[in-house]
Amino acid sequence: MTVTLADVAARARVSPATVSRVLNGNYPVAVSTRERVLRAVDELDYVLNGPASSLAAATSDLVGILVNDIADPFFGIMAGAAQTEIGGQEGTGRAGGEKLAVVCNTGGSPERELTYLTLLQRQRAAAVVLTGGALEDPGHTAAMTAKLARLADAGTRIVLCGRPPLPGSDAVAAALAFDNRGGGRRLTEHLITLGHRRIGYVAGPVERTTTRHRLEGHRTAMAAAGLCGDAAERERLTVHGPYDRRSGYDATLELLRRKPDLTAIVAANDTVALGACAALRDQGLRIPQDISVAGFDDLPFSVDAVPALTTVRLPLFAAGARAGRLAMGKEAPPPGGIATIAAELMARDSTAPPREG
Amino acid sequence: MTVTLADVAARARVSPATVSRVLNGNYPVAVSTRERVLRAVDELDYVLNGPASSLAAATSDLVGILVNDIADPFFGIMAGAAQTEIGGQEGTGRAGGEKLAVVCNTGGSPERELTYLTLLQRQRAAAVVLTGGALEDPGHTAAMTAKLARLADAGTRIVLCGRPPLPGSDAVAAALAFDNRGGGRRLTEHLITLGHRRIGYVAGPVERTTTRHRLEGHRTAMAAAGLCGDAAERERLTVHGPYDRRSGYDATLELLRRKPDLTAIVAANDTVALGACAALRDQGLRIPQDISVAGFDDLPFSVDAVPALTTVRLPLFAAGARAGRLAMGKEAPPPGGIATIAAELMARDSTAPPREG
DNA sequence: CTGTTAGCGCATTCAT
DNA sequence: ATGAATGCGCTAACAG
After folding, report:
1. Which residue of A has its CA nearest to B108?
2. Are B17 and B30 within one domain?
3. Residues with Cβ within 8 Å of residue B77, at least 6 apart in sequence
4. Short-list A98, A47, A86, CA closest to B70
């Protein structure tokens, strides 16, 4: 029923081994023979049996890209870029060699993250790219470290993109970390320079590296300006929530309740910032005249927001593409396996000097 | 080095077949035996060899979800929903049975679409979900039909989500098509009811089903109101472009150049509509006082646009989830294998009666 | 309910 | 440069 390598060999009047060799292209084969084989492949409409091939070779052409939220362009942009570098260029998929770049959506769930890694391990994936912030739970971190070690042992290349390196693990081939701290700090410095002193912060989910680093950057800037109250005050000015619009909306109302005299709100990311803007508008506040708002990431829609959103640009596409190349071994890892990706302040119209002050 | 089924069997003092049976769970095994085996699995930290398993069973647990643009939430929402239904619930991935739901980004390229299908065919994928509009090129359609037929022959279940059925093909197990025509028609009817007569249309890429259907709906409404000029006039009022912000911006400027007295602009989707809004603002036009704008899809950010965007809601999450269930065989296909998903008009603030009559 | 046997389709020695 | 032989790790009959 289904055509096999042997069928192709018979039709091309060569041995199965030869067919395998032309398909994989990593062995000298006479030009005439190769042509004959390829013709037979086309005529029979033969497609390599991946499982059989992977079993015999003990490696597969699967490359997994894990994302926390596939509906969020933050991840989509990185994943798409990585996939372009991995799957991109070559032929029709008829022959061997091409990688199958696939993205797996963990939904931010640590269990699903581990499950996907196991599933990829089961498939003997050639590489795995982990994107976005990590959960900072000791148990989960330990489990991840162990799992990644096993994957690496089995020959799977591990690349981190937008995620800080795993301390004490040599399983990771390369880690591209965003400078979330620096970006967060510069963003808040920008607000302070404008004259803001009472700044609320809508943070991301707790126990996430991204959340913590951005918040640390913010507080560093606040402290440097002598605006850092006691712990209780800091808590009052901070509300945590998921990275979505709803969270921004709700958290902003909560901040306003706690501190009606806020002159600026910094959001964990652009999506949250948009929710914050909506809440402020619904309260009759004008942006930036009555209150300033800032986001993070500089997603494509942020420049079109009204007013255009002040934010911090992360080179998501470039980072994703680089991660893809690293996963393919097409690019040498950075020194020490770790690179920090700069974050650039984009001052736009949603921030301005406070009314009075 | 790497632990195999035989190792587990030895440690649990049973035969390899028994281990296979408890792992796959589709065969009666004594409770005490099962426990012994599972303990051995844990102790040895055994992970099933996917390729070997797939080779022997002639099926794999891979399920592919193809999307045109992974950075677009339109696809992300559907893909995430589908993935939830497919990968969702069960264990740690330690044992067999769980599906590996992965999303593949074609970038809208027909070649990559076919390549991905071949790669999934090579992996003997259990199912494939194709999301979003299809390219309407005869050659590509024929190639797709043939490829899908082969996949179906090999036992891969094919589900379409947000894509019209393939005429004359019985390879597709189920097709969930959005009512793009109806949605487009109702949206334009809404504008006409408000009093608009000169309406520009920023269409999607040519030769795409989604583009064509939405445009047909628009023109049906125009014709019904006697607003449909000759072919040349219709062309003048329509500009095609990709489904992105930039296209909306540029196309809007072009439309304004051709027809400065336009009172409304309908965009191919919400992202394009946002670009259109930006262009209009840059031209000093107020929305909706000077000109109305409408989108399509009702993506999450649309309600937060300023003004809130009038659009057509598509139940992307529900449709994606249903496609996932259909791909898993957890839900019976609709009658005839085809279901049309309703599109609901969401009249918001970006549309209003035109300035003058 | 459990063990035994026989491939699944291909990559890879080793020959030639 | 090509062919023949072996085994990758597992599942699926088939016994028992």
Report:
1. A80
2. yes
3. A71, B299, B316, B317, B320
4. A86
Residue A25 belongs to some domain of the structure: yes
Alpha helices in A259-315 (DSSP H): 270-282
Residues A294 and A331 grouped into a single domain: no
**Cα B55 from Cα B58, distance rounded (Å):** 5
**Which letter does DSSP use for residue A62 in this model?**
E
Separation between the CA of B187 and the C1’ of C3 (whole angstroms): 68
State which residue of chain B sits closest to A279, comparing Cα positions: B304
Residues A210 and A150 in one domain: no
- Does A26 contact strand D, using a CB cutoff of 7 Å? no
Is the CB atom of residue A348 positioned under 7 angstroms from any atom of strand C? no
What does the alpha-carbon distance between residue B62 and residue B51 come to, in Å, rounded to a whole number?
A: 11
For chains A and B, what is the number of CB pairs under 8 angstroms? 193
* Amino acid found at B35: E
Are B252 and B293 in the same domain? yes
- Residues in a beta bridge with A100: A62
Shared domain check, A206 and A115 = no
Beta bridge partners of A64: A102, A128
Q: Which residues pair with A340 in a beta bridge?
A: A177
B357 in a structural domain: no
Strand-by-strand arrangement of the B172-178 sheet: A338-341, A172-178, A157-161, A127-131, A62-67, A100-105, B100-105, B62-67, B127-131, B157-161, B172-178, B338-341
Helix (H) or strand (E) holding A63: strand A62-67
Residue A280's domain comprises 180-313
Give the span between the Cα atoms of B19 and B6, in whole angstroms: 8
B248 within 8 A of B272, measured Cβ to Cβ: yes
The 10s digit of each residue's pLDDT in A282-327 is 999 999 999 999 999 999 999 989 999 999 999 999 999 999 999 9
Nearest Cα to B176, choosing from B83, B344, B314?
B314
pLDDT (tens digit per residue) in B199-231: 999 999 999 999 999 999 999 999 999 998 899
Are A155 and A90 contained in the same domain?
Answer: yes
Residue A146, CB, strand D, below 7 Å: no
| Cβ neighbours for A163, distance < 8 A, ≥ 6 positions apart | A130, A131, A132, A133, A134, A175, A176, A177, A209
What CATH number does residue A322 fall under? 3.40.50.2300
Q: Which residues on chain A are in Cβ contact (under 8 Å) with B140?
A: none
Q: What is the pLDDT of residues A226-277, one digit of tens each?
A: 998 899 999 999 999 999 999 999 999 999 999 999 999 999 999 999 999 9
> Is B200 found in the same domain as B90?
no
- List, for residues A188-203, the tens digit of each pLDDT value: 999 999 999 999 999 9
pLDDT category, B80, cuts 50, 70, 90? very high
As ranges, strand C nucleotides with an atom below 7 A of a protein CB are 1-5, 7-13
Q: What DSSP character marks residue A208? A: B
**Cβ contacts of A122 within 8 Å, gap of 6 or more:** B47, B48, B49, B50, B93
Distance of alpha carbon A354 from alpha carbon A42, whole angstroms? 69
Q: Is residue A346 part of a domain?
A: no
Q: What value does the mean pLDDT take over residues B4-19?
A: 95
Is residue A348 domain-resident? no
Q: How many domains does the structure of chain A reveal?
A: 3
Residues A218 and A114 in one domain: no
Q: Which element (helix H / strand E) includes B341? A: strand B338-341
Q: What is the pTM of this model?
A: 0.95
The residues, ordered by sequence, that sit 6+ positions from B150 with a Cβ below 8 Å of its Cβ are: A45, A47, B121
Strand C–CB A48 distance below 7 A: yes
Give nearest nucleotide to B24 (CA–C1'): D11
pLDDT at B357: 47
